[in-house]
Amino acid sequence: MATFKALVLAEREGKTVAAISTLDREALPAGEVTVRVAYSTLNYKDALAITGRGKIVRAFPMVPGIDFAGTVEESASPDFKPGDQVLLTGWGVGERHWGGLAEYARVKASWLTHLPAGLTPEQAMGFGTAGLTAALCVIALEEAGIAPSEREVVVTGATGGVGSVAVALLAQAGFNVTASTGRPAEADYLRQLGARQIIDRATLATPSKRPLESERWAGGIDTVGSETLAAVLRTTAYTGAVAACGLAGGTDLPTTVLPFILRGVRLLGVDSVMAPAGRRNAAWARLSRDFPAAALTQVTRTVSLAEVPALANPLLDGAVRGRLVVDLHS
Ligand SMILES: NC(=O)c1ccc[n+]([C@@H]2O[C@H](COP(=O)([O-])OP(=O)(O)OC[C@H]3O[C@@H](n4cnc5c(N)ncnc54)[C@H](OP(=O)(O)O)[C@@H]3O)[C@@H](O)[C@H]2O)c1
What we know:
The structure is a single chain. Strands 3, 4, 5, 6, 7, 14 and 15 form a seven-stranded mixed beta sheet that branches. Strands 10-9-8-11-12-13 form a six-stranded parallel beta sheet, with helices on both faces. A two-stranded antiparallel ribbon has the order 1-2. α2 (121-143) packs across α3 and α2 crosses α8 (277-290). The chain has helices spanning 44-51, 121-143, 161-172, 187-193, 201-205, 226-234, 258-263, 277-290, 293-299, 308-316, and strands at 3-12, 15-24, 33-42, 67-75, 85-89, 104-107, 113-114, 152-156, 176-181, 197-200, 217-222, 236-244, 266-269, 300-304, 323-327. It has ten helices and 15 strands. β9 (176-181), α4 (187-193) and β10 (197-200) form a beta-alpha-beta unit. It is globular and about 65 Å long. The two termini are 16 Å apart. It is of the alpha/beta class.
């Protein structure tokens, strides 16, 4: 195919404008491997890029899409050959380098991962960056010695992409999961994923003057930041750990050192974009081995490329449940 369809972001009078365009294959950026994209996704970061509500795009025009899965068409790398099924998450793709919301992508070989055994390209994108991040958070908690017990582990932003996968993965591993959500109507969805308790987002988002409060959590996975992460830290039990990966509620952290120095609480930063291959492979293996297939179906909804621009604002406003997979065949 000499041309291909892509979602293209341009900047006009300081505003980001998104449109589906037909591009020449020659317009693809330099890279060792050309991939025919089968599925991509819409993550929080993609929505920030598409709407211009966050400064994600480094150079226009940009094809957004921080994830994709597909089949290698051309390769100058000995690590990949035509016909190989691959996936990509992160590495600045969709931010600095054209991304996955297109029928074709050309990237560095070192950014690609062979499709993990046991996953189809659509399932891999059901997880995407959000699922990978959730798995990295669970692994970080386990490495910090947090093991299943009767004490609860809290997941904030629970109905979101990272949150939904984290709830199901923790529940599958035997943790007593509490889901914090602003959407009480989704309580049944969260229980089906394995949450045993549901709490209202406002419980954790309300500021407090007290630097420490009653110990409740053995650990937590926080996708929200700001007052919510501060509340999780001041209610985490002695030597507990909290994996922080998100900013859906803000980038600030209004806390004190007391949870760390009086309770030995650990704050574990989790990044998926530049995560080294070893950690990525461990996280993908975990998702492929342990994540219940039925839960993945519940978590994902598949949409077409044409539907993507209209979904970006609702996603940022917390009105999209779980994961959005983008089918590039349709
Ligand atoms: N560190 C990394 O490598 C990495 C990777 C992926 C994502 N992230 C970050 O993780 C966060 C979640 O990503 P995602 O893809 O899961 O996004 P998402 O699907 O939009 O989920 C975010 C969830 O946060 C909650 N929320 C939204 N606005 C909020 C607000 N103002 N205050 C409190 N809660 C709010 C909502 O859940 P409820 O309605 O259930 O409360 C929403 O569904 C984002 O900040 C994203 O940038 C980081």
